[in-house]
Amino acid sequence: MPINDLSRVPLKWPNRKFSQTLYESGLDWHFQISRHKNPLAKAIVLIHGTGASAHSWEKILPVLAKDYTVIVPDLPGHGFTLGAKKAGLHIDQIALSLQSLFKSINLTKIDAIIGHSAGANCGLALSLLYAKPPKAIIGLNPSFVAPPNIYNYFVGPLINPLVTSGFVASFLANTIPMTGMIDKLLDSTNSTLSDKQREPYHLLFRGQSHIYGSMNFMAASNIPDLLQKGAQLQTKCTFLVAAQDPWVPENSLLPVIHQYFPKAVINIEEGGHLFHEENPSRTLKIIQEALQALNPNPSPVNA
């Protein structure tokens, strides 16, 4: 497929001006990219969490693009990236697919990875693939712990082998919009999102591919194994932990971070699981401080 076939991306989709598409290794990718005019500019990858897409970085991408080359993919099975098979939705396989995509667009060196929730897990897996891993990994409410009861209540019933079939995903795509489930899921994050911020999620969960990809991605994660491997990385790690996040609870997450990443910088903030969407200004400040590992004298970033 030729690059920039954006027919499936709504005209008012957040940051659509940065969108591109590319068919590579069986996946019809949608990603957003801003290449800095300085060819020596550092390259940063933003990785969204389960059930989201590149849209969740709406306020983050344009600001970071002032100083860096920034790429924001829709993960396989999410958003407008199509063609994912169940076997390709394991985090390790997604990392390989991302590496292949980046190679195809001549982005061979990644300087920093910023991941939200399960996107932080993907960032760890991706970093492990490089002989020279990124200098900085920034995890926003990283999914380093087992899902809480609220997850089991909303999502657990959806990820058994029967429900993760394509047939049931198609059924859910037609019925979920009428149940109010998406708003209940967003409310359960303890993050306050405007109606405008909720609109992309409502649109995404009307798509069979997005539902199928999200459910199978959540069902294919081996967190302990990933943490053991990720702990070996010689990379500066920074984590944002939202104190009111019921999806990745602070009291469960902090001991895991201390165990596997004892040298990490930890920022505890008042907010919910989608902190980076409800408070992009504070998120950007934390990101910029962490990115000082890339450049001792970086340009200031203003939210």
Brief characterization of the structure:
By secondary structure, this protein is an alpha/beta fold. 36% of the residues lie in helices and 15% in strands.
For this entry, give a set of tags.
8 strands, 303 residues, eight-stranded mixed sheet, 15% strand, disordered C terminus, 12 helices, alpha/beta
Account of the protein in words:
By secondary structure, the protein is an alpha/beta fold. 36% of the residues lie in helices and 15% in strands. It contains 12 helices and 8 strands. The protein has an 8-stranded mixed sheet, sandwiched between helices. A hairpin with a 2-residue loop joins strand 1 (19-24) and strand 2. Helix 3 crosses helix 9. 44% of the residues are buried.
Radius of gyration: 18 Å
How many H/I helices?
12
Unreliably modeled segments: 156-169, 297-303
Q: Largest sheet, described in full?
A: 8 strands, mixed
Given the helix and strand composition, which structural class is it?
alpha/beta
Overall mean pLDDT: 87
Order of helices and strands: EEEHEHEHEHHHHHHEHEHH
What's the total count of β strands? 8
Helical content class = 25-40%
| Shape type | globular
Arrangement of strands in the largest sheet: 1-2-4-3-5-6-7-8
Strand content: 15-25%
Oligomer: single chain
N- and C-termini, Cα separation: 36 Å
